[in-house]
Amino acid sequence: MQRENAMCYVKVHRVGKEVVVALCDAELLGRELQVGNGLKIRISREFYSGNLIPVSSIWEYVDKATVVNAFGNAVVEELAKRIAAVRHAAVNLGGVLHVQLLLK
User: Are the beta carbons of 44 and 21 closer than 8 angstroms?
Assistant: First the structure.
């Protein structure tokens, strides 16, 4: 269950006609996650670091996105509140939920 005051980073990338919204729980930014067999995933500042916002405010960005890349239990849980497929599409990487969505 997500903390009521949970914060996340959001960064909007525009690539041609695509609007890619990158979201990550605030405490994950810059971290490296061990996901098994020596494989590591880095939550890069370059991709995710933008505005620091309350997790409940992600919808003003997600509603305009064509692609969403979300890392973190709080942001994925928030996405699942309105997008049922998130629960089935999310993967657990090193104890952290991750999902990528194609929306439009």
Answer: no
Q: Which of 15-24, 28-37, 65-74 has the lowest mean pLDDT?
A: 28-37
Q: Of 48, 77, 71, 53, which Cα lies nearest the Cα of 5?
A: 53
Work out how many domains the chain is built from and give that number. 1
Q: Please name the residues in contact with 15: beta carbons below 8 A apart, sequence gap of 6 or more.
A: none
| Structural contact between residues 11 and 71, judged by C-beta atoms closer than 8 angstroms | no
**Residue 14 counted as domain residue:** yes
Residue 83's alpha-carbon distances to 12, 63, 80, 92, 97, in angstroms, are 20, 11, 5, 18, 15
Residue 2 lies in a domain: no
